[in-house]
């Protein structure tokens, strides 16, 4: 107790050991359970990667089929839970709706008093994976005043989400296979990132033995902020602001370098990557391909590429080792797919879900886990005597 290390932002403090994700920030390397992110993005699927993260190994064909089937069977929301959405204001941010609804799931499934009970953890894992896409699409439907669609369990994970999001009851919905494949790949890229702000939140909340839904709901809220998952929305808003004010990219970069209050190059910089974020490299290429293939050229893509080029040649960014992160190009793809800006961070949350679950499960089965309880350096008043209110 006598000796306390002062480390604001936990820049140098490891709070756990983990076998899930490896990052070498200087070399720009990211691996899930040992597998390079580039190989997973090119060859794997989101459900396969979710299985890998949660259970530790790539599934056999049968294990994957069972996992998929189990998730499909739990995609419905409780009917009473559907009514929750009526109570939110129409312009509610879907991230706030998502975190509230994830928290509310725990009110419907109180099968065990012990949140760490094995069976309870297994079924909670599947329920969460299954219901979050349904909730996410309902948050969107609510915001545009359209009917919420029930899940169609003949469809795969991403296809089902796309149909619930963009489909309407009056017409059959055809999933565009290019959109589905790219969205699946983006979910893979977001699936875990070791002890980032939201994942650390999930672990910290869970360390008090709060249940999985409560812990993940807290993680969603942590992701909401613009320095974390909210950056993908902030990037699009920044690009649009540059476009509206005449496309003056060098002028915007000057404002960033002058450290004008509130002006940052959103989608740039990372606590751990001091080199190109390997996810950003994959997303940049996907953005160029998808926009060309969908025949949806976007002037914001040109602005983004100009911004990157200017920043990477500028001493301010070079000396601070600031590179594009995963959020820099994703929004352009989501926009081309038809998602409104407010949904971008929800898509990040959908992708990050298996990582949160895997990290929570690792935390509860680690014998070294203790309740999270950082220390502080007290800088307040020394002891003083109470003064009655009439004498103040
Ligand atoms: N634009 C301009 N300057 C920046 C930026 C940026 N995006 N990021 C860092 N800097 C500067 C910062 O001002 C500081 O300069 P100085 O040494 O002169 O004070 C220096 O670079 C070091 O930055 P820091 O704030 O100490 O770095 P951090 O590790 O605490 O913050 C970060 C990391 C990601 C919060 C930060 O880079 C940032 O705010 N980026 C913009 C938001 C963003 O894109 N977030 C998404 C992160 S990746 C995915 C995710 O987690 O969601």
From TrEMBL:
One MF annotation (Gene Ontology) recorded for this entry: citrate synthase activity
Gene3D superfamilies: 2.20.28.60, Citrate Synthase, domain 1 (1.10.580.10), Cytochrome P450-Terp, domain 2 (1.10.230.10)
Coiled-coil boundaries: none
Name of the molecule in the record: Citrate synthase
A Pfam cross-reference name: Citrate_synt
Tagged with keyword Acyltransferase: yes
Signal peptide: none
Species whose genome carries this gene: Plantactinospora solaniradicis
InterPro entries, sorted: Citrate_synth-like_lrg_a-sub, Citrate_synth-like_sm_a-sub, Citrate_synthase, Citrate_synthase_AS, Citrate_synthase_bac-typ, Citrate_synthase_sf, Citrate_synthase_typ-I
Keyword Acyltransferase: yes
NCBIfam families the UniProt entry points to: cit_synth_I, PRK05614.1
Source species, domain of life: Bacteria
Pathway: Carbohydrate metabolism; tricarboxylic acid cycle; isocitrate from oxaloacetate: step 1/2
Family (UniProt): Belongs to the citrate synthase family.
Catalytic activity as recorded in UniProt: oxaloacetate + acetyl-CoA + H2O = citrate + CoA + H(+)
Entry keywords, A to Z: Acyltransferase, Transferase, Tricarboxylic acid cycle
